[in-house]
Amino acid sequence: xxxxxxxxxxxxxxxxxxxxxxxxxxxxxxxxxxxxxxxxxxxxxxxxxxxxxxxxxxxxxxxxxxxxxxxxxxxxxxxxxxxxxxxxxxxxxxxxxxxxxxxxxxxxxxxxxxxxxxxxxxxxxxxxxxxxxxx
Length: 135
Known about the structure:
There is one protein chain. By secondary structure, the protein is an alpha+beta fold. It has one domain (3-129). Helix content is 33%, strand content 10%. Strands 2-3-4 form a 3-stranded antiparallel sheet. The protein has a two-stranded antiparallel sheet with strand order 1-5. Strand 2 and strand 3 (114-116) form a beta hairpin. Helix 4 crosses helix 5. The N and C termini lie close together (7 Å).
């Protein structure tokens, strides 16, 4: 069976929580933004984009203000520090669908070495059920 990221790991802002250091760490891991009810970190529970009332669907592109100032600020920071764009991710999902996005994410971030973390540029060898979905 081929492994890929589970759909519920893609946050409303377009970040793949499956490649986040907070999610991949062994000690006190985050459960991902869409599983905030399981999270301890207040940053995930209180995330303005996750709890935004203006969005009508799962993702920020389902908002008349897309991309809003908060998302644009986050996107600029992630482009600069980590070389990835939440806005580009969201546009890809909107135009090509979540399944194609997940397949592309698999090719970018999962290898025989493990899952490459966007934050610390290290490989993690997690084989947690919630990381992977069935393909």
